[in-house]
Amino acid sequence: MKENGFQLYAVEKGCGQPMVFLHGNGEDSTYFDSQIKFFSKRYWTIAVDTRGHGKTERGQAPFNLIQFAEDLKQFLDSRQLKHIILLGFSDGGNIALIFTLKYPEYVDRLILNGANLYPSGMKLNASIPIFKEYLKTLTGKDKETTKDKRQLLELMVKEPHIKPEHLKRIQIPVLVIAGTRDMIKKSHTKKIFDNLPNGYLCIVEGTHFIAKENPDKFNRYVLKFLEGSGKKKSQTEQIPGWRQKMLSRKPEWTEKYLYREAAVLVPMVQKDGEWQVLFQVRSKSLKDQPGDICFPGGSIKDLETPLEAAARETVEELLIREEQIEITGTGDIVTTPAGRMVHSFLAELKDYNNTFSPDEVEEVFYVPLSWFMEHEPKGYMAAVDTRPEENDFPWDQVSQGKNHLWGSGKYEIFFYNYQGRVIWGITAKIMKTWVALLREPYETRDSRE
What we know:
The chain has 449 residues and is an alpha/beta fold. The protein has helices spanning 33-39, 65-79, 91-102, 124-139, 147-158, 186-194, 210-213, 215-229, 235-238, 242-248, 306-318, 369-374, 425-439, 442-448; strands spanning 9-13, 18-22, 44-49, 84-89, 107-113, 174-179, 199-204, 260-271, 274-282, 293-294, 297-299, 325-330, 334-335, 340-349, 361-368, 378-385, 408-418, 421-424. Strands 8, 9, 10, 11, 12, 13, 14 and 15 form an eight-stranded mixed beta sheet that branches. A seven-stranded mixed beta sheet has the order 1-3-2-4-5-6-7, with helices on both faces. A three-stranded antiparallel beta sheet has the order 16-17-18.
């Protein structure tokens, strides 16, 4: 239903590609104040108040998510806007999904923050209070009930209704982002991601309201998604402002893409009256390094920070809660000639009871930190040679062809031997770097920071 004279109220700032923000149930455009401030430096930000919210009137049309999607189309058509970036939070995410499914030609990229496909995607501890409040509005027990309040609650109780398989029709890049303690079930968020052909998943520390609680991290992840999934500019478009761009940039590792990036946690536990380092033995059923001693950790997923990956892997492997992890330091990055780059974080594990996942871990054991402080690992040198792959290597373009003298290097492999347990390789090197840091005088560490 299209109403004559009806128009969404919007806050606009910046220039460039339109980036439209849709707030959640009971919210308004001010929810995105931090996002407007950040993204308006790069995009034309447009935060709207949906029907019956903020400064947008209720009108006479139906009060449901499908109508809200139609309202958005009317708004965009009145401005002749297409090829937008659409970011929706909570019910705004649901509206964004409905709109993109119905009008795919309007949207270039989509960000879904805390969205759900149907009401049961919400956790019970969130949905039950909402349902009870909704029942009060129907029975008259809530004397302060208004029609608007009842309609807002009804949206969360009865909507949306989106079939997971319909998401497969969305071919554009989509970022699915939610909080670790979101009111939407993690399994439901993952279902949305799993059904998107070109989806990216990002779980950020926080509740349902991460964009407002932790805007710096939220904005950084969204920007990383937009920059990574956007269309590449032509060379002539990149030239203006090159001097300012170069003066402000920070150095990056040009060949980082060649490395498999991972992160581990170095867990410290107070045990037997002293600090001890926890190690785990990899399950013998694993294909990669079965039976080796290591720290909890693993590969960094798309849009994860190294710390988030280390914490996630530790939670999964040791069967603990994230609240039991208290990060106390960030270690140096360790690399190997085989193309691995490992970040490490020192952390205290609280209330740990020797739990672990048998699918990944054979057993856990402890080594007193004092033992590492008193013992050096034994190092062995390994040769590292450059060996081009001869099947397609352009030897004819190299001076002296196959007789060219390539450079060579060395790589040191460390071993700790504690009561018959051999800690070696990357794990030993990471431990060695931490011991070196802990041995430094406090003033030295403080001055480096």
